[in-house]
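User: My instructor asked us to take a sequence, write out its structure as tokens, and then describe one feature of it. I'm not sure where to start. Here is the sequence I was given:
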Amino acid sequence: MRAVLVLATMLALGACGRAVPPPAVTAPAPVASAAANAVLSGVAAGPAFAALGVSQADASGALSSFIESCPRLLSRDDASGLTRPDDWRGVCDAARTTAPARAREFFAQQFTPVQIGDGKAFATGYFEPEIAGSRTRRPGFEVPVYAMPSDLVRGWPDDVAPSERTGRPPLGRYDDQGRFVLYHDRAAIEDGALAGRAQVIAWAADPVEFFFLQIQGSGRLRTPEGEVIRIGYAGQNGREYVGIGGVMRERGLLGEGPGKYSGSMQGIMAYIRDNPAEGRELMRLNKSWIFFTELKGDGPLGALGVPVRRESSVAADPAFVPLGAPVWLDLDRREAAGLWVAQDTGGAIKGANRFDTFWGAGEDARRIAGGMSGRGRAYVLIPRAAAARLGARPQ
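Assistant: Let's start with the prediction itself. The structure tokens for your sequence are:
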């Protein structure tokens, strides 16, 4: 969580996170959208809410997550261009007084489903992994789980002219000569670049499991004594993310037949374990490194700053979906079809109609998220006043 998980599930693999992608399929690599946000992509009215076939249980779960999102909806600027904070005020007031049994009626009265661009959706999945860990370094627990290092900062390299310094400065560090340089990548960190220089929250037992936990953006460490340490995304080293699933597919390692591995998370992990030297090289192609913070309260937390919930929370690109808004996914994967609330982001979750569904923790969550690859259509639910302003009136 993404971000949470920023981060993004097997996003990490095929394209991506979370945080998170798919069954025997690898998610397509993120492609820069031709339009900068939802409004520039084109907004059209979708079908009436009643035509979506939302179940009462689905609506009730989405209502709970939506209510948790409301404080953020009222205070955040919407990068998608679809809504303004005031559009949500009356909707959130109504949500807080709506009984779960009337959740479908609430969504039907308050929202207009709209299509962004062509509406063609692709969804992967992510989960909250649990791996073996320890608060102290000891035999069998040698993989550091770093907190944010103090020397990771934003700045402009000296060779970037002032006139070219547009947008947000890149992440990096100042070296011993006072020059701004890129931050240590995965290989350098694994080789000890941060040893003694950054706080270690805990120590993981398995570097492969920890690699995939970093992709998810949050997770749990279970100690030999039975303690569970929950960790969440704190930041990233600013280095490029590479989906190793895509690389493996290009190299002919994934697919069907002798010597091939499935494109699911499980298949990719199996290849890395069967081929440790090649697997380590593959993981190091992903130069991105995630830093963590220990979570004490409810969670895991998504990019919106509220807990993400199983089968209710989805990661999306905030340039195309207001974070906190409900989203209807009509997919060829039945378990992922339904009403979700956009509460997270992910490194590979970019562009219109790209989503990452959250499946909680446990073995079934791992199995579903690791094999999730759904295609179909998506509709973003926005307040009726916002839809009217955009000219997207209900059909």
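For the description part of your assignment, you could build on this observation: The chain is about 25% helix and 25% strand. Try explaining in your own words what that tells you about the chain.
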